[in-house]
Design a protein that fits this description.
The chain is α+β, with helices and mostly antiparallel strands. The chain contains 4 helices and 3 strands; from the N terminus they run ααβββαα. Bound molecules: zinc ion.
Length: about 100
């Protein structure tokens, strides 16, 4: 036996549809914000305020200022750089200067 929908049932269905729409809009907005995160976190040089460029040389990642050529390096990469010797150290320096 099919039960007739009451006004209350119809209001509840309407509320559920509104909530589903709001949730879909929230997810769409969140996705949009997350896709723009790299732009929002664009790095600037603390010395001259110009753009910083990430550069990976072998497995060592450094960040270089495009203007003043300042170099920023995290602790893990610094340990790797300090462990380089001889030709490997020279190659690293040459790649940094490029
Ligand atoms: Zn700079």
């Amino acid at each position: 036996m099919k039960k007739e929908k009451t006004d209350q049932d119809q209001f509840i269905e309407l509320d559920v549809k509104k909530l589903q729409h709001i949730e879909a809009e929230r997810k769409r907005h969140l996705t949009s914000v997350l896709q723009r995160m790299p732009d929002m976190h664009f790095m600037r040089c603390p010395r001259c305020s110009r753009a910083l460029k990430e550069k990976t040389i072998t497995d060592i990642t450094i960040v270089i200022c495009v203007q003043c050529k300042g170099i920023w390096i995290d602790d893990e990469s610094l340990v790797k750089v300090l462990s380089l010797s001889g030709d490997m150290a020279d190659d690293f320096i040459n790649h940094v200067k490029k």
